[in-house]
Amino acid sequence: MKERRTWIREWLDNPVTFITPVFAVVVLAATLPARFQFADLLSHFMAQYAIGAAGLIVLGLLFKSSKQVLALLALLFCFAVYQLLPFLPLASNDVAAAKTLKILQTNVLFINKDPARLRALIDAEKPDLIVTSETPPVFAEMLAGLKSEYPYQDLHPQKGNPRGLGVISKVKLGKAERIHFDHKGVPSQIFTLRMGEEDITFVSIHPFTPTENIERRDNEFRLIAEKFRKTPVDNLIVLGDFNATPYCTAYKKLLRDTQLRNARDGFGVYPSWPTFLPTPILRIPIDHVLVSSNIGVSQFRTAAHIGSDHLPTITDIYLKAKP
Q1: Do 83 and 206 lie in a common domain?
Q2: Which residues are CB-contacts of 186 (< 8 A; sequence separation ≥ 6)?
């Protein structure tokens, strides 16, 4: 009993000394190979780890923790911030061009019954292209009603499940089709759009969640990369609810294999899910717009809440001048 009281007293005297090893194990476990599901789940919280490490450093200084503890916390902080560096405004982003294409991408949530807020967002933002996932019939009906302004449409709503997809555009669409990269129950949407003198190929995806089926999610990423390695295109955009953050192994491999970059780069982290958490600090970025190297990005941000568990994203793109 006396030993127990001593341990409790030591913990109260300097809790940082006891918390730090546990915190270090969590952060380092997030770097394990993707085949470990728990590692994938832990990897999605790098922004929170950076904030947590900074907070523990402050507490460590207040509680006069050892230099070793403070050094470990500083290393963990640097590791987490390193994962965030591409998105920080310190990074260079593209210069705005005269002709841009404004894209609204959003997971509307398949049980969402009120399309009025999305309609209000469309009226406010006036995007050129709208790409949706988890599209229920009530949202498809609203989007179809915008045909005078968005005459080019390819809507595939689903009732009672999260697999509905849709695209509507002010700009004429080329070939549009639904395909299945990995699983017949999980469709993706591929379409082309002409911008200036060039075509852009879009792939709208919404794979399984890592808790639902991480192998299927990761295999979808692999098959996307394989498709465009076999039949490369000059201008490629992959967008949607990836159910993966930029910090997880599968996402990083997708970027390496496709040579795409996140439209967030240089604009900010912009966490997009889940909206029911009260502050962006607690949310994570899983809604992405990935672009090929010759596509510039002059704006990326999240937009107003539309009643979904995801925030929409707004991206302005343009084609870079060829050398």
Answers
A1: no
A2: 163, 180, 206, 207, 208, 216, 220
**Residue that finishes a domain, picked among 55, 87, 119:** 87
Task: Compute the distance between CA of residue 303 and CA of residue 291 in angstroms, rounded to an integer.
Answer: 19
Say which residue, 89 or 143, is predicted with more confidence. Answer: 143
Which of 38, 59, 87 marks a domain boundary?
87
Task: Give the count of domains, the chain.
Answer: 2
Q: Which domain holds residue 44?
A: 2-87
Q: Is the domain of 123 the same as that of 46?
A: no
Q: HSE of 289 in the Cβ direction (CA atoms, 13 Å)?
A: 31
Same domain, 34 and 62: yes
- 3-state helix, strand and coil shares in percent for the chain, rounded to the nearest 5: 40, 25, 40
Q: What digits encode the pLDDT tens for the residues 294-305?
A: 999 999 999 999
143 CB burial (10 A radius; 0-12, 13-18, 19+): buried
Terminal-residue alpha carbon distance, the chain: 76
Identify whether the C-beta of residue 139 lies closer than 8 Å to the C-beta of residue 121: no
For 7, the token pair is 């341990």
What is the pLDDT, as a whole number, of residue 7? 47
